[in-house]
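Format notes (please read before filing issues)

Several people have asked whether sequences and structure tokens are stored in separate files. They are not. Every record keeps both together, in the order shown below: the sequence lines, then the token lines. Line labels are part of the format and must not be stripped during preprocessing.
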Amino acid sequence: MFQISHETVTALREELAIVRAARQSLETQLVTTQANFEWIRLRVNALEIERAQLLQKAYGIHTAVPEIVRTSKDTSIDNFSFDDMGDEMAKTLGLPVYSS
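Then the structure lines:
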């Protein structure tokens, strides 16, 4: 029924290998970036605590200590919809409204 040339299959396999290598490289970069972000987050939080302690010790000022917290986004498909929210809702969210 269908006939695919050997060159086409070879080219597709080569392209697939390139895409897989690029994906693996991106996954490695993501892991490295996440580790760096986590280190920076912990370091900044420690510095904020230290700053608050120094202010308290030097001047007797008690300050709130801000903290950087990692949150997870809800990316489940259940929250996705193609339904039109309507012009009024778009205006309240600050989104552009296109009228036809």
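For reference, the curators noted about this record: Residues 6-59 form the longest helix (54 residues). Residues 50 and 84 are 49 Å apart (CA to CA).
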